[in-house]
Queue: 3 jobs
Job 1
Amino acid sequence: MAFLARLLQNVAVKTFPHDVRFVAAASITTESLARVMNKPKPGTGKAYRRIVHYPEEYTIEPLKVTNLAGRDPETGRLVAKGIGGGIKHKYHWIKWNRDGPLEGPPQIEKVIDIIDDGCRTAKVALVAVGDQLKYILATENMKPGDLIKTSKFIPRIPVRANEGDAYPLGALQVGTQIHCLEKYPGQPCHLIHAAGNYGTILRKFGDLVVVQLPSKQEFAFKQTCMATVGRVSNIYHNKTPIGSAQKNRELGNRPRSGLWQRKDGRHGRKVRRLPPMRIISAPSEKPAEPIKFTLNL
């Protein structure tokens, strides 16, 4: 007992210069809190793969690209896990509107060259219209020197269009394969851009045309919606094996962990019944902004 008492006397208790219980906590700003809490989620229409620096006017010069690697450009937080790395490519600006005459003979355009674009799966065609040049998506059998037509006139008898021609849906025959389809007249061609894809005109009723998309779903569009005839180029894109893990990294895909499982749907696909046909309605108009007046007295 006496030995324990002598041992405790020799022990020196160190005191901390500042007690952590009385240290003031640093204030957190609302901006930093929102950056931590409001993390964006995938599936909102943003790919988080690259940012293309568009100029003010259309140009055929290859555009500079900033790769995101699946991260949010503002916060830098990882949003899409399967994106990363890859070879940095220039971006070719596609002219998504095919403008043509409303009456009279169609506009004649000439294909100058067919090039590969690393930022998309399909090939790109350089087309000359008068004294202007533009890029469009190349079709399956398109080659340099071809002449393609563009018109917005809907005749009484459907036209017999060739590959690469752009006409309204009402001017094409039933059973025609199309791509680069407008959702609503006047909008850019939003639908059917991927390599080897095409839609099929099934039937017409009233001023609507029913088109079967590559997903096998049927949609009814206005007959004045523009579409390009033919199948998108590079048809063997989904049939060509990648071949190696290094090639997959060069394409910008990060390896994913876990075993591929078909039945539980983790990385596989569930087979569901197709939804019924839907009619594409007009886009909603934006509400008018209130006008504010100020008076200095």
Job 2
Amino acid sequence: MLSIISSFETRNKRQILSSDIDYYNKYVCTSSADGVIHIFESDKPDMYSAIQLQEHVGPVWQVMFSHPKFGFLASCGSDCKLIVRKTNDDGEWKIVYQYDGHKSSTTSIDWAPYKSGAIIACSSADGTISIHTLNNNEWSVSKIPNAHLNGVNCINWSNQLLNNHLLLVSGGNDNKIKIWEGQLGMWNAMYESDNQLATIKDISWNPTPGLYKHIFASCASNGRVFVWGSDDCCDWVQIEIDPENNQKQKVSFSRFGTVLSVTMNSYAVKLWKQIDKQTWMCMERNITNKKTLDYQDKNVNQDIFAAIA
């Protein structure tokens, strides 16, 4: 059973929307509906030592550290921007790249596997996905137009390459899931799901091969969670997780891919482990305690594995 080992106050004036911890557990980063990003040092997480970043206007939907090989911190928000920062010699987080080419809120970001280089994907409510690549200290961008009708809500990279090509999965307001294959800066939809009858809220790709070579989980606004498995990324098998409960918000695989977490509206997180190709077993039902969250008014749509190294 998981338990809280530490907690601390932040200066956020509104709901916390996202959090992340860097690779070496040195920094804890939070973003908020007040438009402010806070960075804490994990060994002294008090509000007075926090670094505040206020380049966004409006809610900051997500923050994410890159692999330490690159040392970046990225964020996206309702102001339609993607911002990438890096620390200088004085320990200040300075903007090294900013993209404002989306026409609506940037909803989600994800760094590609570090062996592929410094690449970050950014989804938007304008229905497009932008892919940003660093080469020779210069950033270039390619775009997936019309990725999802009425907006893209979530994206996630696969750690597994297919024919030496990157794979990106996305979900949107068109109730569909799509898998994109990158080839020489071009992105082709190699798979498109049938209509899932509800908005796709979150997606998590398993970082390691399991009983299937490729596995990802999806969560929809009707509370249905599916685990998708395939050996070729073309033919997919769907297994529904916990169909009785319709209050699910977020899905996330652990770093080694052995456990799937499902965040509930009831301030609880369930952990699931695969037994065979058709069976998933619930391991835990009460990780998050409502009382510990009420006084902070935290958003329950959190990735618990973002806070576990």
Job 3
Amino acid sequence: MLQQQQQRQENLKMRTPPTHLLSFTEQIYNFQICATDFASSLICIASDKKLILGLARFPEESENDTFEWERLKDIYNESRCHALAFHPETSLMSVPKTVTFCSAGADFVLRIFRTDLQNADTVQALKAHTNYVNDIAWDTEGEFLASVSDDHSCKIWSSESHYENVITFCLSSAGMSVKWHPEEPHKVLVAEKKGVVHLYNVRSQQAIISLEAPRGPLMSADWSLNNCHFITALAYGDVVTWDLSHKPCSPSDVKQVHEDGGRCVRFAPNTELVTASIGRPDITLKVFTAKSSVPLVEAGLKLYAGLCWHHRLPYVAAAYDRKLGFWKVQFK
């Protein structure tokens, strides 16, 4: 026991403080950084029943070489947010500005918000799920919105039919993550809590391939934007990675990262060799390169309210309690 306490104290000394930190008066429950080229500084932060839209300007892109936060607009949300996703056509360069995003509420309803950041705001409610929605994602053309839920389903909503639920994939356990890839426009990745990751073709409505993690439960999965052959999942405390170009059904790497289980895993957007994950004990953020057991970043958060990479800059962000932290990652 004494040895474990000493080890815990040593680990605390090694924690990485955030490079930049935002503090809010309300607890944060979720957040998302926009990944479109024309709104990469835009962030949506979900408090209890409020969605905060703002701009984070980093020293790398600021005229003053400082970190700046500008709160643009607060939008009322009927239900506490469980997941967020920006529409791929979101732009701050157009006139008027076009910001579209989806929030998955604790009442099982998806709400699509549209705003010009001035006075023109609309909201559309999508109702079909019968339990908590764990993840949502738009395809890169904005044609489809996908959602996965504890009701053992993945639902596909079509923008052409005013977001009617056009496809439902039935799962054998809770759906935890859903992802699209710009190089695979008709395929959607769906991860189940029992440890299975599927790739579905939305045109044929058939499963193309299924991957299985060595152990569960699976809490999160991601698809590398840099290399469509790489898929990762956080199953129990292991970060499991598959390379579909070599052994599509067997993991290419299994790394125990979180001793007491994990919450979320994300590939860095510009490389499949770096992942960020959050797990226990102490709700800890860790960033690893594929071949190293020494983390590039390690930070204790105590609470979990989301994990996201910046689309263009080398920052990983995590929300906890009333704070949103940004860690600059030195890629080797």
